[in-house]
Amino acid sequence: MDETNIQYNTTEKLQAFFKENMAVLTSDDPPHLAQLRKQAYAHFIEHGFPHTRLEKWRNTDLSQILDHDFNFPLKPTVLDVDIDDVFRCEVPDFNTRLIPQMNGWFMGTGEEMANGVIISSMAEAIKKYPELIEKHFGYYADIKDENLTALNTAFFRDGVFIYVPDNIRVEQPMQMVDLVNSGTTIFIQVRNLIVLGKNSSLSLVQCDDSIDNNIGFNNTVTEVYMDENSTLDHYKLQNKNNESALTNSTYFHLEKGANLSTSAISLNGGLIRNETQVRLNGSLSHADVLGLYLMDHEQHIDNQVFIDHAAPHCTSNELFKGILDDHASGVFNGHILVRPDAQQTNAYQNNKNILISDKAVIDTKPFLEIYADDVKCSHGATVGQLDEDARFYLQSRGIGHDNAQMLLMYAFAADIVDKIAIPQLRNRIDDLVKKRLRGELSSCEQCVLHCNSKEQKVAFEIDMSRI
Amino acid sequence: MLSIKNLRASIDGKEILKGVNLEVRAGEVHAIMGPNGTGKSTLASVIVGRDIFEVEEGEILFKGKNLIGMPVDERANEGIFLGFQYPVEIPGVSMTNFMRTAINEQRKYRGLDPMPAQEFLNSMEEKKRLLEIHAKLANRSVNEGFSGGEKKKNEIFQMAMLNPELAILDETDSGLDIDALKIVAHGVNTLRRPDNAFIVITHYQRLLEYIVPDFVHVLFDGRIVRSGGKELAFELEDKGYEWIKEAQV
Q1: pLDDT (tens digit, 9 = 90+) per residue, A122-178?
Q2: Cα distance between residue B200 and residue B173, in whole Å
Q3: Position A98 confidence tier, pLDDT thresholds 50, 70, 90
Q4: Residue A457 to residues A119, A423, A426, A435, B64, Cα–Cα distance (Å)
Q5: How many CA atoms, within 13 angstroms, populate the side-chain half-sphere of residue B90?
Q6: Please, which of A109, A186, A264, A266 could form a disulfide with A291 given CB 3.0 to 4.6 Å?
Q7: Which residue has the higher pLDDT, B207 or A262?
Q8: B150-165: b (≥16 Cβ within 10 Å) or e
Q9: Which letter does DSSP use for residue B140 in this model?
Q10: B82 and A396: CB-CB below 8 Å?
Q11: Nearest to A345 by CA among A283, A275, A259, A406
Q12: Nearest C-alpha neighbor of A435 from the set A409, A400, A399
């Protein structure tokens, strides 16, 4: 395969930046991390940014976003906004442990709870919890897998570290909110690590929002380790401005009997790419990987899902649904690998799309790679328009054209929204999806979990509440 | 209430209705009968505004307003209802949500405030009893997983909820067993009032034993070729449609 290194300005700038700031970047690194950073840097410089001649990047072109004069912040941004105010969560009755991040930096206070649960900044965790870091950091996000992961590993400064010890079930959902607000054009590398002990459980909401309209590139890598029989209920909520690029790579590693549910809900964003990799490493582990994307204007969404069935008796279930309007474009690549030992695998994959305008585009590609003989795998992909017969039926009862269309789009999305396990969050997202479909959601004023402006009760012409 | 004059309509260039004339006044029940493929369903579709049909000539007036060119939803808001021959399944839209939206849009069109939730729920319960619908509609998507009979009952349920001035029932009897047919007919008869009207399209005379029409029309080859009282239905039952066809030759 063609691996030509395309030299964007940004690559050269990064190179110079790394050389200049190597001492700062690596100052707190324990030896194994320093080594990893060096390897990652070398790998990134050798291969450069992904480009459209790579199979996995054929339909997602970073060249436009990379053609900017980026700043690479080395320190947290000092802001003249009130952090509490910015991050104030107005989801009714949604009582979460808020973990604020600003431009990737951990903004809150770290915590070591009485039951052993740790919430910390990544930079601090590297110093304070060297055993946990050494055991897990960099083991699931392979720098050779993806150049953006190499880039992140070489350049990251901070992020979030969460540790849940064995047998601890965390009742209160945790909510990471990463806001990008810089005043300048920034390129940030955010690195998170979540470690769940045996028989533990956690609900985690990971939000990416912008609160300004600046051009920004956020390249986040999150590693998640799930030990035996642990449970994770994970949500990614993405509501970015149209000038921003977000590449979000999440690597899940599941040991025996672990149970993962992860949903990527993309409401807005100039360019969003979610790389979701799940390694079912222990038998009887299970993963639900879900996604919903609602894109319009010139927005681009790319979901890359890789499910690695490495052990027998595991199940995986993928469902991604999207609505694309105007000139929006989307990509779905679903790769399921069933390794020779992974007998009795049950893997299901589905991607359904609705194109509202004839200028909207979706590229959907299932890829099943099966080396075991006793497995059940199925996949499906659909691309269509809204059902004209259904619309006529709704209209024949007096529902106007636009509202009938709304109702059908909402019904299509509800399939994913209904699967959200936390009721308050489900209601909130339900509300956001309605607003989004009505064109009433703005990335800055009404981002997912902070509300700068007091929320105004939006009067729907049609009441779609479920009674 | 409804006045159709010399209506000609076609689909894909093929003329289906070849000059239909029909007058329906408030308080009346009209039955339209005829062999398959003579334009009965097309007539229903054209009245409610299905845009796959092209109106070539003629006029349709409803309460004095010209319907031709009026959007589908506006015709519904004016008080026209179609009970579908083949009701559409809409996964993800709950019956409750659907009905509430429809009712409130119709109320808005008439300058009324949305129906209060309690009034709406009471109305739902009352109409469910009328149609002997036992399912919990709040959690069920529109027609999804409904049996043929349930779908038809659901059409009449919607009619009862929306309370139209003119209801057109397109082969509501097809696919119904005798018990369901009685329930549907009872529903329709309960809703008959001096200020509303029904057009019942049917292939068989059976339904008309339960919903007794004031007028019966026979549609053949895109035209109404015979009109009469309810006795015409019995005559058709005896002699079959061949009699009409022969009379046309």
Answers
A1: 999 999 999 999 999 999 999 998 999 999 999 999 999 999 999 999 999 999 988
A2: 10
A3: confident
A4: 34, 20, 18, 11, 41
A5: 27
A6: A264
A7: A262
A8: bbbbbbbbbbbbbbbb
A9: S
A10: yes
A11: A283
A12: A409
Q: Write down the ipTM of this complex.
A: 0.95
B30: pLDDT confidence band, cut at 50, 70 and 90? very high
Which of A387, A393, A408 best tests the B interface by mutation, with the highest count of B CBs <10 A?
Answer: A393
The answer to whether A140 faces chain B, any CB pair under 8 Å, is: no
**3 state DSSP class of A426:** helix
Q: Distance between CA atoms of A16 and A3, rounded to whole angstroms?
A: 22
Q: SS3 of B202, please? A: coil
Look at residue B144 and tell me whether its pLDDT is greater than 50. yes
H or E segment and range at residue A61:
none
- Inspect the interface and report whether the beta carbons of A411 and B92 lie closer than 8 Å: yes
A258 vs A283: CA distance, rounded Å: 9
Encode pLDDT of A316-343 as tens digits: 999 999 999 999 999 999 999 999 999 9
Say if strands A97-102 and A105-106 run parallel, antiparallel, or are unpaired. antiparallel
CA dihedral (A46, A48, A52, A57) in degrees, to 10, reads 90
How far from A274 is each of A15, A64, A292, A296, CA to CA, in Å?
25, 18, 12, 18
Is-contact A175 A96, C-beta < 8 A?
A: yes
Residue A202 has pLDDT above 90, yes or no: yes
Query: How does residue A87 score in pLDDT terms, banded at 50, 70 and 90?
Result: low
Angle at B229 between CA B223 and CA B232, to 5 degrees: 70
CB neighbours of residue B115 within 10 Å? 17
Which residue reads 């009409």 in tokens?
Answer: B244
Which residue does chain A place closest to B100, by CA atoms?
A: A463
**pLDDT tens figures, A204-228:** 999 887 666 778 899 999 999 999 9
CA distance A290 to chain B (A): 17
Which residue among B88, B101, B104 places its CB closest to the CB of A390?
A: B88
pLDDT recorded at residue B235:
85
pLDDT of B45 > 50? The answer is yes
State the pairing for strand pair B29-33/B14-24: unpaired
